[in-house]
Write a structure and sequence with these properties.
The chain is an alpha/beta fold. It contains seven helices and five strands. InterPro entries: DNA_methylase_N4/N6, N4/N6-MTase_EcoPI_Mod-like, SAM-dependent_MTases_sf.
């Protein structure tokens, strides 16, 4: 997650990152996803920001993507119209529509039941969409910027393994709060805390 900045060229924003990736790595830019939200900071000297950008990169064209896992249902009216469109595959149409790369999902407010105390915590709905579409049950999800630990929570719910790390020692405390919230909601919160990644990567 990040923002495109124009006022500070040394900020390490997405423009810098994308340029570096294209020039210095073999990663391919598959999609730029826009997270749009209605509420945000006010502004008087420029247009108030109401979105964040996410970049989806892949090492090759042979990447995993499960669109069916995140399709959005049509309204009854729109479904009837879509089924009449001969350009669309009726089997896929019945499954639901592509959510596109613009996602309107509200930010977490201070009273949200998802809150665990992290200042930039992302909504479960957003993380769930990424996990469900870009990984499969039983696969390993790596999160090198664990933050609040929401990725770990979603992986438990969706049946994925998850390896998380963060420079902030408090990150594990945030994740433990997620586990407590899951228990209070009577959700499956069982997980295995490991000290070595060799179990997943055959490292001896």
């Amino acid at each position: 997650f990040g923002g495109i900045q124009f006022r500070d060229t040394k900020s390490g924003d997405l423009i810098d990152i994308i340029q570096y990736i294209r020039r210095s790595t073999k990663f391919k830019l598959i999609n730029t996803i826009i997270w749009y939200y209605k509420n945000g900071m006010s502004a008087h000297r420029y247009f108030a920001n109401r979105h964040e950008e996410v970049i989806w990169l892949a090492k090759s064209n042979d990447y995993y993507f499960d669109l069916d896992a995140v399709r959005e249902p049509y309204s009854e009216k729109d479904l009837k119209l879509a089924l009449k469109d001969k350009r669309l595959n009726p089997e896929n149409t019945i499954k639901g529509k592509n959510p596109t790369n613009v996602w309107q999902i509200g930010r977490l407010n201070g009273n949200s039941k998802e809150r665990v105390g992290h200042p930039t915590q992302k909504p479960i709905e957003i993380i769930s969409r990424f996990v469900k579409s870009l990984s499969y049950p039983g696969s390993v999800v790596l999160d090198f910027f664990a933050g609040s630990g929401t990725v770990g929570r979603v992986c438990i719910t969706e049946g994925r393994h998850c390896l998380m790390c963060d420079s902030d020692p408090a990150s594990k405390d945030y994740f433990n709060k997620h586990i407590e919230l899951m228990k209070n909601l009577e959700q499956d919160s069982e997980y295995e805390d490991i000290e070595s990644t060799s179990k997943f990567f055959n490292i001896e």
